[in-house]
Amino acid sequence: MIKKLLMALPLTVALAVPSVAQEGFPDRALRIVHGFGAGGNADTVSRIMAEQMSQGLGEPVVVESRPGAGGTVASGYVTQQDPDGYTMQLMVGGHAVAAALYNELPYDSVGGYTFISTLGQFPFFVAARAGEYESIDAMIDAALANPGSLKIGHSGVGSTQHLTGELLALRTGAEFIHVPYQGGAAASTALMGGEVDIVIDTGTVLTGQAEAGVYDILAATSAERWPDMPDVPTLSETVAPGFDVVSWTAIGMPAGVDDEIAARIRSEVHAALDNPEVRDRIAALGANPGGSTGEELQALIEGQIAVWTDVIETAGIEKR
Amino acid sequence: MQETDQDQPSIARRALSGGVLLAVGLVMLSIAWSYPVGKLTQMGPGFIPRVVAILICALALAIILIDIRAPSAEREGRMHWRGLIFVSAAVVIFGVLVDVVGLIPSMFLAVAVSMFADDHAKPLTVLIYASLATLGGWLLFLVALELPIPAFWR
Amino acid sequence: MIDQFLIGLGVVLQPNILMYAFIGVFIGQLIGVLPGIGAITAISLLLPVTFYLDATTSMIMLAGIYYGSQYGGSIASILLNLPGTPSSVVTCLEGYPLAQNHRAGLALFVAAFSSFVGGMVGVAILVLAAIPMTIIALRFGAPEYAMLVILGLLAASLIGTGSQIRSFAMVVLGIALGLVGADATTGYFRFVAMPELADGISLVSLAMGLFGVSEIIRNASYRSPPGPALSIKMRDVIPTRAEARSLGFPILRGSAIGSFFGALPGTGAAIASFMAYAMERRVSRTPNKFGTGHLPGLAAPESANNAAAQTGFIPTLTLGIPGDAVMALIIGALILNGIIPGPRLMVDQPDLFWGVIASFFVGNIILLMINIPLIRFWVLLLRIPYQKLYPVIIVMICVGVYSHRTSVTDVMLTLAFGVLGYLMKNYRFEPAPVLLGFVLGPLLEDNFRRTMLLYSGDFTIFLTRPISAVLVACSTLLILFAIWSSIAVRRKPDRSPT
User: Fold this and answer.
1) Are A116 and A256 within one domain?
2) What is the ipTM of this complex?
3) Which of A21, B120, C170, C393 lies in the 20 to 30 Å Cα band around A62?
4) In this model, does residue A235 exceed pLDDT 90?
5) Contact C406 A65 (CB under 8 A)
6) Cβ of residue B60 closer than 8 Å to a chain C Cβ
7) Other CB atoms within 10 A of residue C43 CB
């Protein structure tokens, strides 16, 4: 109610009138569950989608945060829910990492789901303090010249950022010290303070500093250059041919959702992604918004699980 | 502080609190023993837990010694069994039910059960009061704050 | 600086924006009173509202919720021994005894006033010294954090009214509880008995259990004899001249400590309030009075957590780096509005930057004006017999803890800690040091191990880095002082050891 009252206040822009509820599905509130703390990117994306989808579906969509163990607590919970179409999960790149990293998961990372659609994909960037390295090649050369001297700060053991750093080491033959921090912001602080030499993280974490001239963005981890930063080379075209790491957000449901209902939700997701404001907000979070079919999402996840399983084994990261 | 006429608590009783702490430390040490310790530059996850567990054991031993040697130590407080039982029951009921039947029934039952921690509670008062409290909780948590908790089972 | 601040003031004083500032601090105040429901829950619920607001207004409202909750948090601590926010745990230590001595009104007044001064000092630091504070904060690397925590633990080992060794044991127990969950450095699961514990024990569960639930267990079946009617006359709420005089330095010290810890990313209001309390106890001439409703022990941490809530915006605004989860959420709201937070914010968006800071100034005044008249209302609440109050409190704790992570495990853990806290008190163990160890322990382990990793196990790094060396020197002095004073006490047996 507080929310509705606030929405009714003068400064707020007039809202689109929600469409009238239709017969049949849905006839009550839906929910988007995610496995991260309130305030993280996953939470914010969930709320953006919930806000827009509730208008299309004519029923409220509530966001439920069930954090724990890198999102696996939420995945375990969602896959056990009734596949009635009322429970969605906001999934992130970490889902594939978890499938590779954990010895035993209380759910099936692929078979446990009815995949709906991707929401967006985003690369990571390699950043250093401004002026420290001419280019990504110079950075890798420096690392090769003094093995084990360059320190890469990352946002936590087993995070996609961490594994991306490990993959970079594997592909280039460079040896880094991988230093874990509690989240990307802390790693970025350490880079600024001179405690580490390199940070690999999302554009959201790094672009503010880069625009201010504090950081140089040396490379992007995606196969193609990132449209927002056409001047930044990719790792693939410079030091590590074939390097392609993107993270993603997507919507999934428990396995066994009726095809018609899944299609309805998918069309709502795509409709929301077509809304320019929603696109802008998701893009502001550093992602390239874009929907997909369920099969495409499944293929993406399966491919990434294979990559990360390989990285974890080769880099000798201990499984949990 | 001098005990006046009460008999001294026995040595076993005086060593109880330190003893429990010692047990906690020992259990922790036995669990942490299997964790990798690593080396100084790459400390394993077991390093700090072992240090902490040993520290707890040492402090617990010191507490036991002090408590045994100082017979004038204050006696432990009396137990509030009624409060302990009904407050615990109320929280457990809430926790077990909230995911199953929703917020409203679990709030109602938790309030009702917890009221029996007071030995003056009468069934009718409890019923009325629990209804009122549940109504207030519904207004606060679901209407005003819109917490994402279902009101009833789905 | 002052000129820009005045421009910012011009932004805030537009009626529309002022209204959102008011709404923010008011909601924050209410949320702060509710146990377990913190600023994070409130801000994430209201995040969609900010989709329809401009960046400056969004940020002013969300920030208001955050520091408003710091004011609200102390109210439940004082009245019911129920920390509304983790940073108001320390407020329980002196505030609740005051309320039990029928001086709840006075305690609420002192808390509100100290909060106001602390908040204002925080704002002043933001306006005058944001950049220097940022530079200092960036010089705090892993070795400095590790040594700072050690200094804090040493300084605070006097928290609690029991014997020192008992309270130190409780600090270590708190550190042990903080170890539960995935190890931050290796990801190894430690003491994880069930998957829900993988991210560790929630601070909310621990605080609500040790303080709130244990107190309910103790008092539920106890019928207090009809005491003297609670006075709600303004005369009995305002401190006497002597009391007021005793508060000046504690409030200033608290504000200074709070401002410092707030500006360090990764520490924050809870640690600041613990440190301020420990400091006050250290410098006090009457340390024995602590724990019995001693006003300086209430005023110092209250000003500290509010100062920290304001200076916590320094890294957020100057670097775009969120110091904690709430700040991350506020930065998220900025990003959604298409503004990239970073060092250029101050230059590119002066209206936003200075408008937000000026809104803190205005917001603190609004909060003081809301709080003083509300004291009457809160004290009246205490006239409700405890038997009618506690069932509602139990449910509020349950809902608050559950909603925090949608976790039944957290609810059960809260009960477990409630029983633990109850038993501890029966056996003369204080709960506050447990919380301190819990908050500081992970910070120490994380930074100590990171130091060893970064500097290849070289211990001299603690002495060769200047800030770290100063902290080591302070710790050493503290130990020497403790040894010296214990010898001095033994020489003069008439002075009772603390």
Assistant:
1) yes
2) 0.91
3) C393
4) yes
5) yes
6) yes
7) 28
